[in-house]
């Protein structure tokens, strides 16, 4: 299952509107098939792995990070039906599919065919990997990640607006990896005018994984950019699982005010700016007590001379 999760994670940012699923098929202790959801969402991970395994899928154990789909689609057959036809001995599923077209039906179909099925192995890891798609299923919008590069004292730029470069090469490389795992990246009009950002991926081997670009603005449309007039417009992004927001304190404040940020990445450099531009404006809090309990630390690590801090929004289930 660890391998299956890793395969799905490697596909994150490429599979929307479908989930980034991973699948591994094992027979007699050897891996005979591997698959992940393909770019654009098809073929599904199970179809890829079964194609690789061929006849060796019979009597095997299949590890898959999400319940095999059970609904028909013009884009391809239901994975539950493919597995029934392949006749594995056992299927291990990390997560039940929340999509009402499949929920429980894929599992039931396999069990009815006499295939042993276990549910829940690797659930936390799979849930983390598919957080974007799961957020869209639960909230009707992408998972929104806010990225900020800050000084020790929480500044994003000098008073003049200069901000290149607050962080070092290792932190910037990590940002490009986050871009490669996102379906869309967004900035505000101010960042667009000041920096003319390309927002592409410049990591060797991942250049083709640059996400779609979006601009938060009520102004005139810009060629090559998708326009969002307000943060609430993320609810119409039905083909985006992971949205990365990179653009400036005004945009960051707008998304926080709308309570649409699910994850914050802070790349903190060991510098003190003093007087400068703050990371956020007013976000509607009138008492310190109201700020507590809203965020939890989920990760932290050194990136060269800089420090990455990851925070997750605490929401009721």
UniProtKB/TrEMBL annotation:
Its EC number is 1.1.1.193, 3.5.4.26. Its cofactor is Zn(2+). Substrate binds at residues 163, 179, 202, 246. Keywords: Hydrolase, Metal-binding, Multifunctional enzyme, NADP, Oxidoreductase, Riboflavin biosynthesis, Zinc. GO terms for biological process: riboflavin biosynthetic process. The keyword NADP applies. Pathway: Cofactor biosynthesis; riboflavin biosynthesis; 5-amino-6-(D-ribitylamino)uracil from GTP: step 2/4; Cofactor biosynthesis; riboflavin biosynthesis; 5-amino-6-(D-ribitylamino)uracil from GTP: step 3/4. Converts 2,5-diamino-6-(ribosylamino)-4(3h)-pyrimidinone 5'-phosphate into 5-amino-6-(ribosylamino)-2,4(1h,3h)-pyrimidinedione 5'-phosphate. This is Riboflavin biosynthesis protein RibD.
């Amino acid at each position: 299952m660890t391998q299956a999760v890793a395969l799905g994670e490697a596909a994150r940012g490429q599979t929307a509107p479908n989930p980034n699923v991973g699948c591994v098929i094992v027979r007699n202790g050897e891996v005979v098939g591997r698959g992940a959801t393909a770019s654009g969402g098809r073929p599904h991970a199970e179809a890829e792995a079964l194609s690789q395994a061929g006849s060796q899928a019979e009597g095997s154990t299949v590890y898959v990070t999400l319940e095999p789909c059970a609904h028909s689609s013009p884009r391809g057959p239901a994975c539950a039906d493919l597995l029934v036809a392949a006749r594995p001995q056992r299927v291990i599923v990390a997560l039940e599919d929340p999509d009402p077209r499949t929920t429980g039906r894929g599992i039931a179909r396999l069990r009815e065919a006499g295939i042993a099925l276990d549910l829940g192995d690797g659930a936390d890891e799979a849930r983390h990997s598919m957080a974007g798609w799961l957020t869209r299923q639960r909230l009707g919008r992408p998972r929104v990640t806010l990225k900020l590069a800050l000084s020790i004292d929480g500044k994003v730029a000098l008073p003049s607006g200069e901000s290149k470069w607050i962080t070092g090469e290792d932190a910037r490389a990590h940002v490009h990896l986050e871009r490669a795992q996102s379906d869309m990246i967004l900035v505000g009009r101010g960042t667009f005018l000041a920096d003319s950002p390309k927002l592409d991926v410049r990591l060797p081997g991942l250049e083709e994984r640059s996400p779609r670009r979006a601009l938060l603005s009520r102004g005139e449309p810009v060629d090559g950019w998708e326009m969002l007039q307000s943060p609430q417009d993320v609810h119409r992004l039905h083909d985006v699982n992971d949205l990365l927001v990179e653009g400036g304190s005004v945009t960051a404040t707008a998304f926080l005010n709308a309570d649409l940020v699910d994850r914050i990445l802070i790349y903190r450099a060991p510098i003190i700016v003093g007087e400068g531009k703050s990371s956020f404006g007013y976000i509607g809090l009138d008492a310190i007590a109201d700020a507590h309990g809203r965020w939890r630390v989920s990760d932290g690590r050194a990136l060269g001379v800089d420090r990455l801090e990851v925070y997750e929004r605490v929401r009721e289930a």
